[in-house]
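Recap slide: LamG-like jellyroll fold domain-containing protein, sequence and predicted structure.
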Amino acid sequence: MKQYKLFLLILSISIALFGQKDNYSSFTDGNYIVDGLGVSKLEYERYKDNLDDGVFSQNYDLFGSVRSLYRNDVFDIHIDFDDVDEAGCSWGVSVAPADRYLSVYGITFQDGGANVIDECGNFGVSGHSSPKFLSHYETATPGDVNILFDEPVIRVQINAGKSVTITMTAYDENDNILDESSLQGTSELAPISVETDGIRKVVISGNGIYVLDDLMVQTQNLRGTFQGDYYSAHTDETLIPLGNAFPYSQSGTYTVIDGENGTLETPIEFPFPAISGDGEFLDFIIESDWHTKRPRDMEIFYTAPNGEETVVASWTHPDKYDPEGGCSEDLDDFLENGSHLDCSLATPSYSIGFFNSEISLSQSDSLTLRILSAWSEGGIILSEAWVISGDLCYETVSNSYLSFDGIDDYVEIPDHELLSSNGDDFSVLVKFNSTNISTDMGIVTKFHSVNYKDWGMIINGSELSLEFEHSGNNWRIDTSTILESNQDYAIGFSFNYQTKLIRVYINGVEIVSETLPVNDLSDTDVPLSIGKFGGPYNDRYFQGVIDDLTIWNSVVTSNEIQSHMNGSLTGQENGLVGLWKLNEGSGDMVYDMSGNGNDGTINGATWEELVQEEDCPGYGPSPEFGNFVFSRDDDMIAFDFDSDPVSG
């Protein structure tokens, strides 16, 4: 069911304009590594935004540890310990790894067992990555080597050696043994590994002296999300100036109704100019030349001939006070380094929106830029804009999904305070595809009894309905929207605790809104059920596929709804307190990727694989990302929008 479109930004800028650097993409800064090649911050950010959080890290700026340099189709974390500069040639200057890798990889080495030491200590081993490794010496580092993982992983491997028997044991979060393997060490290091679902700790043991190096980990949430090599296609750019296509909006021409979020009472819309040329829209870059008068949340929507609107890109322009820097020197600097400078009076700022649908350049007059919010009430300055165009092609390779039979299949997540409002804003988003929509059934519910239902989204006579109750007061929102079988839907609701307003969404469009007639949603101790009416009903099971359940302690924005529809949420978004992708592919658990640990148990539902193929012509060996083989040929088209600063 998943229709993720994970995007790879491979921009090709001409040598004359930006300069060429050997062995890297054409405007890399070299500080970011993707599968062994240096990429720019912009390229890196695009990878990171569209894959599960933690796939790629900013290598050499932190430790020099490698996440992507040795990335293959098995492991997505690689620690070689060569970043420990303070380690010396003797035990007197050896260094315990401890929590050195915690913030980047979520990996902790408990005290004792082994320290990082330099090979100049002459341990008489080979086959390690020079010059540093972990070494165990019973007198100096007594005890076993204990490696802890913040999130469950599915495979751990490390190279080990010396003339002793070395054992690796895997444990779950309750210290139950999951897997174990042993290795008779020699002077040449060899791999030892454990592999199973739900690993939270490995213990490495052995008597005497032994050496460890090159820790490799396959994380639970990244199963099957990355394969193949980075590939860059180089083509010439095309610059097309378009004048004042997007003029500025002066103070007084719009009203900010939410001071905290800058939400506009009436969004500002600018139609796209006509653009000639072949290819599809890939990205849209906007520049604002005034330090405070800049847009905030933006989107681009496509208007079909029948008048139906579809959001095809959404993003947020940086704040002047962004702690990482809200400005750049110029477009070249932005493409190289992203937004990284503190903003002065006239320092330009840039942002980029990634298209999630194939829209050709010839359809540009069907596109509209919409500004949803602003960083200031004093005006919005839009200076220049660019489109990056090219050939966009997706080939769906395979995807795991959880199938419910409509008889007795469901998933249950134990109760937690984050699964209800509890005096705070609250939102729930989920995707599904039912093979029999005419049957009454629960999609996601938290029902305690007939008179006490925290909240629930159900199908009632082919219609999406929501049910709430508080202190015995039954209340239902009927959307009056008839759904169809075998269709993908992204649905959800938001609850504003202050105003008591509940908004209901289907496929990103607000369908209905009503005010809760009581003070708050109920909060009982009942589990959350996926795929059935819960509580006393314990029936009306869902038939089909349920996907990407998210829970928020905030009122979701249009950008967050769009990110959910695109499948690009990582679990690290502000306000996101629960994320169940339901794509593990095996086992009887579904994992909460938000980091809050509210994992669920599968009861009867089965894992299946969806395989679809499409001829995808492109440049040479295409890289494979997650569920898509992606190849593209990039041009760059520039808009030139002259606008003068407005006073006020």
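The first strand starts at residue 32 and ends at 34.
The two ends are 50 Å apart (CA to CA).
(End of recap.)
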